[in-house]
Write a structure and sequence with these properties.
44% of the residues lie in helices and 12% in strands. It is of the alpha+beta class. A four-stranded antiparallel beta sheet has the order 4-5-3-6, with helices on both faces. A three-stranded antiparallel beta sheet has the order 7-8-9, with helices on one face. The protein has a two-stranded antiparallel sheet with strand order 1-2.
Length: 424
Amino acid sequence: MPKKHRQLFEKIANFQALRIAALKAIRGKRSKPRAAAFMANLEKHLLRLERTLQDETWRGGGYTVIEVLDPKPRQVSAAPFADRVVHHALCAVIDPIFQRGFIADSYSNRNGFGTHRAIARFEQYQQRYQHVLRADIYRYFPSIDHAILKADVRRRIACPQTLWLIDALIDGSNPQEPVNLLFAGDDLLSVAARRRGLPIGNLTSQLFGNVYLDSLDHFVKEVLRVPAYVRYVDDFALFHNDPAVLRDWQARIARFLEGRRLMLHPRKTRVMNTEQPATFLGLVLYRNGLRRLPDDNVRRFCNRLRGLRDRWRSQTVETEDVVQRVQSWIAHAEHADTGRLRHTLFRNGWFDPWREPHCSLDARVLRGGSWNNNPQNVRAANRNRNDATNRNNNSGFRLASTPPVARVAPFTDDASVFGSVHGQ
């Protein structure tokens, strides 16, 4: 049985902890009016939060719902800034408790276990095994059952006041998109009585989403004894050389998830040969180590860049904000083979993120490696891991292509640029 933790609430509902949480919540949001208003009267707002938490009279505010259509329709919920402060204060205390129980191959929303580390792990298994079971959970966040989640939380936390706060956050979830799933023993009345769904966009929802699937991770590793398994939120993969074994695992996982009131996605769950390119976490991964950006990702970036250009011209967004957003996307894109994309961006003068003197990125496209190595080992993520005392005398090469960068404004009116980037 896992250890249960008590006397946690004093670390959450005190002025200093709430102040640290407010400083975390304000990162990247100082230009938001409500966040700025909260910080302008920080002491008064924190004292009010401290009092309502300690009196157990705190209630979350209403969510602002944003309907997102691309890449797929979903509902994103934004909590009031004061609620986000409470979310940060709570997660700072309880997140380490749950983190200690997570398996090593659970990569979502964890420090040091991010997207690119999950991709590298997927590639290792992809090169080692012949087949993979790619699986996704049907409408995961709207399907999370509140009663089951609360029981999972109580396996590790026994502090009554902390449990009151967690229950208040779960019960305060706004209505999510309907998920009409019936399981064994259900009738229409029992389904209607069960509360389901967590708001996408909450810091606490990210943590609770991991907690809810932690039992699946342990089932896969400890009951099915799967040696090669990767999960990122509700997207996971199991590897084996025998496709029949993978299909058996798929059936057993489906039965296990029914007990959690979840269902595997009928279209996104399938057994594949690892020779086929696999799209995982925004990159198309090939078995030879090549990575490419999906065309849809490039199209979405072009659309967002067009929107940023229009907002920049209307002076509703600062140039520094544009720089930060584009650099963030390029930082992700650099993990793939993006030579043509980057040449197009720089040659047409769309954006020059390297013009900032404090930026350490290099505008060159580099390729290289030793003559006696495999092509996939050219990528830094697949380099040989040798002992520190190992010495080699190999012939090698290093190539660099420096794109011509137009020193112009961040955006251009040339509509053909969008077509050329999309066709990279």
